[in-house]
């Protein structure tokens, strides 16, 4: 049984078709990476899955439920969370307030959840009263992931979590992603930093010019010479 | 009397008028940051509040509820009740107006929304004029003597002390709301990043409703306080204050309610103090000049953040 099943989806912006009959699956507790060159439609796929764009053809199922055409605020209630590549935090709010906003639709006491997220990102606990707008790129990314985790999602979509981060910080973000995954959350990542991401992925998809090219386990994709030459920079 | 010796007294007037402008400015700032447009109807919402207050006062008198002044003030509990009810009714009116007008334009650009707000401004002003006429209506007929302020060469009326104290209390209330309540935090979050607020699951329709409730309620209080200070109101009351409010909001940093408060108080003081040196007729020009200078020197305003 798959947690997320994207089946033959065609999508884009207005009349401009970016994705052509793309299919993809994420199983429970899997880490799946989508790699591909710039303009391959990776972010478009994320936005389509999360309901920010409506597919013209195809279906998207989450937990066996058809979510094609549902709005993001409905999808977030079903247990999927999305961390956009940019502008993924509320800059004038503190770390703590960003996390509280992540729990906006929760009516129960979520202080334990905040505590769990601080255990996952200890640096955020120390800085919980600081405004996020003044924090570093790596810390912002942690706040963004923490916010997305507040609703106990079963699947998180991460759009280029290591983009614009120094290598050392990127490594730390990937470590945190593994730690999140170990708490039972499935993760779908779009990455430029494809090697690192594939290394920790169960499976990977190669997307090019808006279509599926290859799919295999993360390890096999890393070891595939042709993929390496074409998409992983040699 | 030389220009310099007038300044303490003009400062007092400026703080009073700045307090009233600030209550209007908070709403303009919140509407700008959360709904994404400059609301040209905000002045007329203030006038609407003032006239609803006037209607309620008339109603109270008609049913035989005489208002006895409270201590040194020139009005009593009936007036304060009318003000509270007018704030509530104006807030309710804004929610209805949002449903009928702005909600249909939620995805329109800021220019379309601004144009719609100008239409609303004209509409509200003419509805007011239709029911109450263009002539001034006396708010408070009682004459009040200004008493000397100890230590400085200026006088102040008890009503003016009331205006300043009420403005401070309301500003503190808005601050507490934005800082400590879930809805207040959600308002700040939506002002920061509306798209992210939606994907986070924040109920943005409710945030917008609260924006109108706070902006409309405070506008009504500002309109009524302007009536208290001037003794009378006209349908032009809010429109005449709108330029000063916009100047204050831009000066403080558009989209930042704290900046709006500071900016409006500075504009209020500048307008009054300027009358020591130049003709009173230039008051609006003073606000305009400060606004233009700020846009040239530091377009983000005193507390505005960089784009």
Written overview of the protein:
The complex is a heterodimer of chains A (234) and B (307). Chain A has a domain at 4-87 and 153-231: P-loop containing nucleotide triphosphate hydrolases (Rossmann fold). Helix content of chain A is 36%, strand content 26%. Chain A has 10 helices and 10 strands. A 6-stranded mixed beta sheet of chain A has the order 6-7-8-3-9-10, with helices on both faces. Chain A has a 4-stranded antiparallel beta sheet with strand order 2-1-4-5, covered by helices on one side. In chain A, helix 3 runs parallel beside helix 6 (137-149). Chain A starts with a strand and ends with a helix. Chain B is mainly alpha-helical. In chain B, helix 1 crosses helix 6 (182-192) and helix 2 (42-62) packs parallel to helix 4 (110-132). The model of chain B has no long low-confidence stretch (mean pLDDT 93). At the A-B interface, helix 2 and helix 3 of A face helix 6 and helix 7 of B.
Secondary-structure map with pairings?
The complex is a heterodimer of chains A (234) and B (307).
Chain A: E1 4-13, E2 16-26, E3 31-35, H1 42-49, E4 57-62, E5 65-66, H2 72-77, E6 80-83, H3 95-102, H4 111-120, H5 122-126, H6 137-149, E7 155-159, H7 167-182, E8 186-190, H8 194-199, E9 203-208, E10 211-217, H9 218-223, H10 225-231
Parallel strand pairs in A: 3-8, 3-9, 6-7, 7-8
Antiparallel strand pairs in A: 1-2, 1-4, 4-5, 9-10
Helix pairs in contact in A: 3-6
Chain B: H1 3-35, H2 42-62, H3 77-100, H4 110-132, E1 137-138, E2 147-148, E3 155-156, H5 158-180, H6 182-192, H7 194-200, H8 204-230, E4 232-233, H9 237-252, H10 257-274, H11 283-297
Helix pairs in contact in B: 1-5, 1-6, 1-8, 1-9, 1-10, 2-3, 2-4, 2-8, 2-9, 3-8, 5-6, 5-8, 6-7, 6-8, 9-10, 9-11, 10-11
């Amino acid at each position: 049984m798959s947690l997320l099943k994207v089946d033959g989806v065609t999508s884009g912006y207005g009349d401009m078709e970016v994705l052509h009959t793309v299919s993809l699956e994420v199983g429970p507790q899997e880490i799946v990476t989508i790699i591909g060159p710039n303009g391959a439609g990776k972010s478009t796929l994320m936005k389509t899955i999360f309901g920010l764009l409506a597919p013209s053809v195809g279906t998207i199922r989450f937990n066996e439920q058809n979510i094609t055409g549902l709005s993001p605020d409905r999808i977030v209630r079903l247990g999927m969370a999305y961390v956009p590549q940019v502008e993924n935090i509320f800059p004038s709010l503190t770390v703590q307030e960003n996390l509280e906003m992540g729990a906006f639709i929760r009516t129960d006491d979520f202080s334990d959840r905040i505590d769990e997220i601080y255990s996952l990102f200890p640096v955020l606990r120390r800085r919980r009263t600081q405004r996020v707008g003044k924090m570093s790129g790596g810390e912002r990314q942690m706040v963004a992931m923490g916010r997305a985790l507040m609703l106990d999602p079963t699947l998180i979509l991460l759009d280029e979590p290591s983009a614009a981060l120094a290598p050392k910080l990127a490594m730390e973000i990937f470590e945190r992603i593994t730690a999140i995954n170990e708490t039972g959350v499935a993760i779908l990542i779009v990455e430029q930093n494809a090697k690192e991401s594939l290394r920790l992925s169960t499976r990977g998809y190669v997307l090019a010019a808006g279509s599926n090219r290859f799919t295999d386990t993360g390890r096999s994709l890393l070891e595939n010479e042709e993929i390496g030459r074409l998409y992983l920079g040699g | 009397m030389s220009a310099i010796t007038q300044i303490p007294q003009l400062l007092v007037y400026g703080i009073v008028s700045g307090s009233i402008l600030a209550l209007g400015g908070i709403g303009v700032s919140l509407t700008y940051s959360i709904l994404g447009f400059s609301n040209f109807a905000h002045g007329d919402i203030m006038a609407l509040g003032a006239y609803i207050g006037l209607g309620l006062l008339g109603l109270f008198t008609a049913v035989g509820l005489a208002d006895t002044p409270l201590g040194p003030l020139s009005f009593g509990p009936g007036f304060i009740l009318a003000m509270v009810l007018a704030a509530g009714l104006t807030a309710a009116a804004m929610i209805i107006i949002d449903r009928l007008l702005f909600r249909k334009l939620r995805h329109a650009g800021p220019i379309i929304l601004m144009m719609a707000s100008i239409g609303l401004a004209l509409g509200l002003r003419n509805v007011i004029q239709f029911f109450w006429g263009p002539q001034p209506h006396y708010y408070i007929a009682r004459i009040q003597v200004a008493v000397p302020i100890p230590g400085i060469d200026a006088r102040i009326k008890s009503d003016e002390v009331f205006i300043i104290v009420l403005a401070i209390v309301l500003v503190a209330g808005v601050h507490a709301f934005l800082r400590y309540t879930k809805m207040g935090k959600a308002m700040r979050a939506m002002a920061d990043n509306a798209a992210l607020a939606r994907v986070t699951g924040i109920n943005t329709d409710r945030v917008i409703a609260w924006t109108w409730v706070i902006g409309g309620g405070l506008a009504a209080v500002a309109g009524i306080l302007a009536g208290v200070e001037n003794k009378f109101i006209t349908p032009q009351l809010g429109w005449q204050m709108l330029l000063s409010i916009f100047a204050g909001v831009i000066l403080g940093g558009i989209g930042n309610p704290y900046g709006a408060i500071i900016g409006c108080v500075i504009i209020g003081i500048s307008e009054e103090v300027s009358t020591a040196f130049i003709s009173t007729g230039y008051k609006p020009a003073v606000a305009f000049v400060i606004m233009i200078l700020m846009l040239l020197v530091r377009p983000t305003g005193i507390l505005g953040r960089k784009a």
